[in-house]
Design brief:
Radius of gyration: 21 Å
Oligomer: single chain
Shape: elongated
Order of helices and strands: EHEEHHEEEEHHHH
Largest sheet: 7 strands, antiparallel
Distance between the termini: 47 Å
């Protein structure tokens, strides 16, 4: 499932879409919202923020619809398609009047088998143009959902730089939240293994280990991305103390999350090794 959020700075007949809606019927006559009204996407809702609106669209997409969206927004199609590639690494690039930022984010692996990672990471694409802010992800993402549900303090999508920084911030918080859950799960399994050495617990530990592999890789590339954004001053916030201080805190939090991931990985590897030896001994 692909989820796209598009921030529209203004719409006509504002009162007709000032509340979330479940369909696009009310928007058919609004010229400024042809982006939504002529698409065949499932529109979950459109919510007002300040002087603009944030629309949330779901796939499935018909052939050519992403290309149509890229043309309407006057952005490169690659910015959209790369955001849907789970193997893409965190980075940023600029083309003409568009800025593209790709950051990896953790999501629960709902479709994973018992042998798969509990959490995986997928890219969030952030596309900044003169007229729109677009975020796109291949799956529903708790980080983006918090913005749409207006659960982020002082969220104002018309402040482009703060919006990007808040996505970074909420993404780091999400990593930390998932790390705490993984570590708690590891501790519970370890306590159970004091009384037995069962292969089922070992399998659960391996699922945690696979999740941590995703986290270490993604947090590392996210850190490099943020350091490069800071060095090049991509967001032009170096002289804005409020933004610069927040960005510095986000970079520190990302480093802490990466350090936690590495520590948990080492602890887990040692535990798995010890359990594997015990299982082999018991099976003799």
């Amino acid at each position: 499932m692909v989820v796209i959020f598009v921030y529209l700075p203004s719409l006509r007949n504002n009162d007709t879409v000032s509340m979330p809606i479940k369909s696009r019927q009310k928007m058919e006559d609004q010229e400024d919202d042809k982006l939504f009204s002529k698409a065949k996407w499932r529109i979950k809702g459109i919510r007002r923020f300040g002087a603009g609106y944030l629309g949330q669209c779901f796939s499935p997409f018909e052939h050519g619809e992403l290309d149509s969206l890229a043309k309407k927004l006057e952005i490169p199609l690659d910015f959209l398609t790369d955001s849907l590639d789970v193997d893409e690494r965190s980075r940023f690039e600029k083309e003409d009047d568009s800025t593209f930022i790709l950051v990896n984010s953790p999501i629960l692996n709902d479709e994973g088998k018992d042998s798969e990672a509990i959490y995986i990471t997928v890219p969030i694409g952030i596309i900044l143009t003169n007229g729109h802010i677009v975020t796109i992800c291949s799956d529903e993402n708790p980080v983006l959902d918090k913005f749409y549900e207006n659960k982020v303090k002082n969220f104002d999508p018309s402040d482009r730089n703060m919006f990007v920084l808040q996505i970074f911030e909420q993404n780091v918080y999400r990593f930390l939240e998932c790390l705490k859950k993984l570590n708690l799960k590891r501790n519970l399994i370890e306590q159970e293994l004091y009384h037995s050495s069962r292969s089922s617990e070992l399998q659960q530990l391996l699922r945690i280990e696979k999740s941590l592999v995703y986290f270490v890789s993604s947090l590392s590339t996210n850190e490099l991305l943020k350091m490069k954004i800071k060095r090049t001053d991509l967001l032009r916030i170096a002289n804005e103390e409020r933004y610069a201080d927040l960005f510095e805190d986000i970079i520190i939090d990302n480093s802490q999350a990466l350090e936690m991931s590495n520590v948990y990985t080492k602890q887990l590897q040692q535990l798995v090794d010890n359990i594997s030896v015990s299982v082999r001994i018991c099976n003799r």
